[in-house]
Design a protein that fits this description.
Length: 232
């Protein structure tokens, strides 16, 4: 499961109609609390003073909550709908008052690893596939927008030589937004008539520049590529 834009108005308390089943303190930021209720998941970034519904879960009881100590994913055990995972919860952990006061903020980007996975298969039961979605390949890019609108945010990726290798766009709701880059050049930086295939970029340091309106934010990150894979 992906992190949803946190654009709902915070509630001063958890809904009275939602019996609370579990409350967990974030191990990396004690100001962040997660509450699993009979019907939904809620998060507080001010130690319980205000709460916001988090994630795109169906209506389901959340029985237990864990922040994975290595991956920093939020893992939820539900009653009747198996396990849900919100990939990379660090933007919620880092959503301080100083960040929320900014027009835009680009959160730190984790190291990315390019690899060629073997094709999988799906087990069918009638017209339904009982299989969860994996995280997108490449790297997750999360950012905060203080006052979102219809215009998308632009993200430019450059290599260590200052060359643009990818141009991305992403919806810019008020709150936390997220997109991903597959570690491959985007079509606009390739020569359609030069026989350039879409390969992974080379390993090394990269820089992402987020632009929204007049505001800009930058973050550097590392890319590694599995041995034996051809790169551009």
């Amino acid at each position: 499961m992906r992190l949803s834009p946190a654009n709902a108005a915070p509630l001063p308390s958890l809904p009275a109609s939602h019996p609370v089943k579990v409350v967990r303190e974030d191990p990396f930021n004690p100001e962040v609390l997660y509450a699993g209720t009979e019907f939904a998941l809620f998060v507080s970034i001010d130690r319980g003073k205000h709460w916001t519904k988090l994630g795109g879960l169906p209506t389901v009881a959340v029985d237990d909550i864990l922040v994975h100590p290595r991956e920093r994913d939020l893992v939820l055990a539900t009653h009747g709908r198996s396990v849900y995972v919100i990939d990379d919860i660090r933007p919620v952990e880092d959503l301080t008052a100083a960040v929320r006061a900014k027009p835009v903020h680009l959160f730190p980007i984790g190291a990315a690893h390019g690899r060629a996975l073997l094709p999988g298969f799906e087990e069918w039961s009638g017209s339904t596939v009982f299989r969860g979605a994996n995280p997108p390949e490449g790297v997750l890019i999360s950012f905060w927008v203080g006052d979102g609108g219809p215009d998308p945010a632009k993200i430019e990726i450059k290599n260590a030589q200052g060359q643009t290798v990818a141009n991305l766009s992403a919806a810019a709701f008020t709150g936390i937004n997220r997109t991903s880059w597959d570690l491959k050049p985007t079509k606009d930086v390739l020569n359609d008539y030069g026989g350039e295939g879409v390969l992974f970029v080379r390993p090394g340091k990269y820089e992402a520049t987020l632009s929204y309106g007049e505001a800009k934010e930058k973050q550097s990150f590392e890319v590694t590529i599995a041995p034996g894979i051809e790169t551009r």
